[in-house]
Specification:
Structural class: alpha/beta
Strand order of the largest sheet: 7-6-5-8-9
CATH superfamily of the largest domain: Aspartate/ornithine carbamoyltransferase
CATH architecture of the largest domain: 3-Layer(aba) Sandwich
Radius of gyration: 19 Å
Number of domains: 2
CATH topology of the largest domain: Rossmann fold
Order of helices and strands: HEHEHEHEHEHEHEHEHHEHH
Bound molecules: phosphoric acid mono(formamide)ester
Largest sheet: 5 strands, parallel
CATH class of the largest domain: Alpha Beta
Number of helices: 12
């Protein structure tokens, strides 16, 4: 167990070493057990977290806010639109000033080519830990919850297990690419074989894919890319299929929608799930476009673990907050 996380930021998935992520998971499982038993866990009594949102949220806001209260502290929900950020408060000023009010700063900023840069600028000016609640590049807390969920369903030793991280069609909006990027970076470190599936116009950032491939080589796991959703699903233990925007191809929403609409058949349905292992689990961070991205039959079916996955956001985040703040 690593005991030196106090004061640390979590912005990118590889900011914590594999051993440090194992520590987070150990604490998360303990916190989950204690919550089930009704045992109080006031590890952050009198501490405060600022939650600064530039983008909407259901799970992230709820789980960070509930988590801080369960740890004996308080979380302040701050929407960027109701601050003076649009009137000139810079990232440096937010880091300097909120770093003096609060014991931790959590930020969600998903704007393409802006979010990660902003969070890092805040972190450079902040004297307290900065936690990434999702940016344009990474969604590290979702990924920790996903890893925790996979371990609960498939065992702690994931060597030889296959996860397919697949693009899926969506009609609602061009979703960030941060979830698949975090998954392909983190899962090789825990022994999983990764298959990344997407239509040609929907690649991830080349530098992230290269880093994921380097992690796969380091941990002696397989890493494959396919442009065929069904081939990606073949023999998978974990099906993680969600939509993301064609951000490396175009940032024009109209052109992006046209590209998305070319792949309406990239829906997760029972037929595609039947290509995966019979005991495969289906994962999605939510929200999902029902009957477009995934059928109700799969999302509400016996292979779906999406509610456990959403629950584990709470426990994983409490673990990181308790260890860093
Ligand atoms: N999965 C996830 O991050 O959910 P929210 O966007 O609702 O926070």
């Amino acid at each position: 167990m690593q005991t030196n996380l106090r004061g640390r930021d979590l912005i990118g998935d590889l900011d914590f070493s594999k051993e440090e992520v194992e520590t987070v998971l150990e604490v998360a499982f303990d916190l989950k057990k204690k919550k089930a038993l009704g045992e109080p866990t006031p590890y952050l009594r009198d501490k405060t977290l600022a939650m600064l949102f530039f983008f909407s949220s259901t799970r992230t806001r709820g789980s960070f806010e509930a988590g801080m209260a369960q740890l004996g502290g308080h979380a302040a929900f701050i929407e960027s639109a109701t601050t003076q950020i649009k009137h000139g408060d810079t990232a440096k000023e937010i880091g300097e000033i909120y770093g003096r009010y609060f014991d931790g700063l959590a930020i969600r900023h998903c704007d393409w080519l802006e979010g990660n840069k902003y969070i890092n600028e805040v972190a450079r000016a902040s004297r307290v830990p900065v936690l990434n609640m999702q940016c344009d590049i990474y969604h590290p807390f979702q990924c920790l919850a996903d890893l925790m969920t996979i371990m609960e369903k498939k065992g702690r030793d994931l060597r030889g297990k296959k996860i397919v991280v697949s693009w899926a069609y969506a009609a609602s909006y061009l979703k960030p690419i941060s979830v698949p990027q975090s998954l392909i970076l983190q899962m090789p470190r825990f022994g999983m074989d990764v298959t990344l599936a997407y239509p040609p116009e929907f690649p991830l950032m080349p530098e992230i894919v290269e880093e994921a491939q380097a992690q796969a080589r380091k941990f002696n796991t397989r890493f494959e890319i396919t442009n065929d959703m069904v081939e990606g699903f073949r023999d998978a233990d974990v099906v993680y299929a969600k939509s993301w925007g064609p951000l490396l191809t175009t940032t024009d929403p109209t052109e992006g929608k046209r590209l998305q609409d070319m792949y309406k058949d990239w829906i997760t349905d029972a037929k595609k799930m039947s290509v995966a292992k019979p005991d495969a689990i289906y994962m999605h961070p939510l929200p999902a476009d029902r009957e477009i991205e995934v059928t109700n039959e799969v999302l509400d079916g016996p292979q779906s673990v999406v509610y456990d996955e959403a629950e584990n956001r709470l426990h994983a985040q409490k673990a990181v907050m308790a260890l860093t703040m």
